[in-house]
Structures are given as structure tokens and as C-alpha cells.
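If you are new to this repository, start here. Below is one unmodified record pulled from the training split, so you can see the exact layout before writing a loader.
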Amino acid sequence: MTLSIVIVNYNVRYFLEQCLRSIVPSVIGIVHEVIVVDNASSDGSREYLESRFKWVRFIWNRENRGFAVANNQGLAEVRGEFVLFLNPDTILSEDCLSACIGHFRKHAKVGAVGIRMLDGSGKFLRESKRSFITPMTAFYKLSGLSRLFPRSPVFARYHLGHLDPLKDHQTDVLAGAFMMVRRTVLEKTGGFDERFFMYGEDIDLCYRIRQAGYENHYLSHPPIIHFKGESTSKHTLRYVRMFYGAMAIFAKKHYGSWRSGLFTACIHIAIWSRAMATIVLIPFRSSLMRFFRSMASLTTSVLDGSSDGRGQILIAAESHQYQRIVSGIKSDAGSWIPGRIKLQDRKHARISKVEGIRNILIRMQARELIVCPPACTYTEFIDVLDGIDIPCKFSISAVGSDGIISSGHAGPVEES
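And here is the target side for that same chain:
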């Protein structure tokens, strides 16, 4: 067994379905197993997924045991030489797993490998590579200095903003959304620390991997999609408390009492600063929201060439899946479907599919692109998104799927 993939699911059956379907072409030629640990989902995940993916080993918890505990349940079952901890709201390219395994084969000192992650609009997710948290990096991040100086080796140290995301790097911390680890390393370090309720467990595991004498490597290519990466609000006091509470646990565990105390003091100062800034901005928030909504509406009208909010939906799919998607889109959605994108045959194409789709999106100023693999491969879909900067929604629904997903949305095709 070369690779074991462990996924924790909680009420995201449509995201998980698309994730599992993207795994199928990525494991060709790799002896593998996939273990899904479900934390008592109430969205019908068991009824929906179990019959569709008989090649997946499911563990059905009767209660939500948390991310760390569930991952450790899966870890106890693995047999692979390498273990991939994967989030269910990810889409893999066809060659990302083989690239990671190949990197391990070339570098004996590498204990864990992470990969460049993009959100659902194609933007780079900074949590793909990070440094270990310290009192000062915590203060710079929470105070907003890291955002003011995003490429500073000092102020942006936490997200390693000074390191080019398009190049490979040795790094401290990899994201728990996609972290591949040698099983022999996990046998030395142990799995996730179950004291971390949310956030911090990946940082803690990466720290222990480094302590064991191994390196953590960030790979810039090929990237993957992490749909939910951009949907979590990181500007609320609730997020601040949860994230930095986890960092406080990490500091107390690894840094000793003196540095832990300094770390906690910096956190409290930064939290109060953020709270005061939030209170000051409250009177202006509603006005700002109205302004941005009006600008968004104006932008949509200009792009669509209309004033009633109509927008073009482009669909890259084989004919049978195209008809299914079209019939599922509500007729009163105010959307215009000009026709199916007929992609050129790879052997005879004068331009790549990626270039062709990008040109169509820009020329037609589409509101949404729906891609249905295998008409467009997962790698091609990710390459279309990679670095693109147009106001377009990107959705995916693989052939044979009843669901469709995009940033912040997942549901059956007939409700798209």
C-alpha cells in the first residue's frame, strides 16, 4: 500500500462527493485506500455517499468527535507508506498525488509535504505555507501589520509573505487541508493532539515533525482547489478568540511558561485593539455595505451588458451532462445560457483548453462557468482558475454526480 487518504466529513456531502470524484483520476497507478470518517453528519451523507463510493472505507461516528479525534480514528486504520490528511472541500489535479510521492522519494529527510492551494475564485491561499507562531508574529498578524506589509520578512513572517508562492520552499507549517506525511514519521510523532478543538492541530503536528528531525516542504505545483478556504470570516472576534486560543495552547505546550505568558499578553493586546477598531467602525459598516453592494450591482450590469442583472452561464460539458445541467437551472434565475462550450480535441487543438476557456470567459464576460469533468480535466479546471482575475463564479459537477459546488455553495443540480 503506497498511499492512505484520510478525510473527515461533517455535513458537506456534495463537497465530499466532488472531492472523491477528483481523487479517482489522481490515484491511477498508485496502490491506495481512502478512509472517510463522518462526525455524525445530519445532512444525509451516509445515505447519499455510501452507495455511490463502495471503494471508500467509511467510519460513521454517532457524535461529532472533532477534527483531531476523527483524523486519529482514520490514522489508526491506515496501511499506506504515506498518509494524506485531506479536507472534503478540496479538488485535486490528476498529477498532484504522484508529484508529492515523487518528492518524498527524492528527499529522504522530508517528513511532510503540502501544496499550493487556491480558493474557489483562483486566489492563492496564504495558509498553504506558514511559520511557527511566536508572540511577535501573532501580534503582527492580529494587529493587521501583516496585511499592510504582505511581503515583509518581519511583519508578514507568519504567512512567509517574502517567499514566492510559485516556487518550492522548505517551510515550518503546512495546511491540514492537504498534508501528506510519511507513516514512519507519524509512528514517531503520533497523530493530531486532541486538545485542539479547532485550528492549531496542523501547526502542532508540523512542529513535532520538525522536532523529530524531519523537514516540511511546500510544493508550488501542481496546485489544488480548497473551496471553503475563502468563506471563513477571519475578521470576527469569534474567529480571533478561537484561533488565538489554539495558538495559546500551542505556546503553553511547546514554548515554556515565560514565552507562553508573553504570547498570551500580546494576544490580549491585539484582541482588544481589534475589538476597539470593530466598535469604531460599526457606525460606518452599514453605509459601507450599501456602497459595495451598489458597486457590485453596477459592475454586474456593465459586464453583462444589461441593467436587469442578467448574466451568461457558460457550461463546459459533454452533451448529455450539459442537458442535465441546463434542465436543472431554474428558468426564472434571470440567466442566459448561450450554449455549450465545445472543447477541442487535445491531439488536434491549436490552443490549449485552458487558454481557450479563459479567452471565452473574457470575451463573453460570463457570470458563471460550470465545468463537468471529464469534458475538462481537473487539472485544466484548476489551471483556468489559477491567478485569473475576473468577476466570475466557478462551479464544478462531475459526470454522474447529482450535486454541484462552488465557493460558499453546494447542493443538488436541480437547485443550482
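Two things worth knowing about this chain: Residues 311-415 form a domain with the Dna Topoisomerase Vi A Subunit; Chain: A, domain 2 fold (CATH 3.40.1360). Residues 339 and 396 are 17 Å apart (CA to CA).
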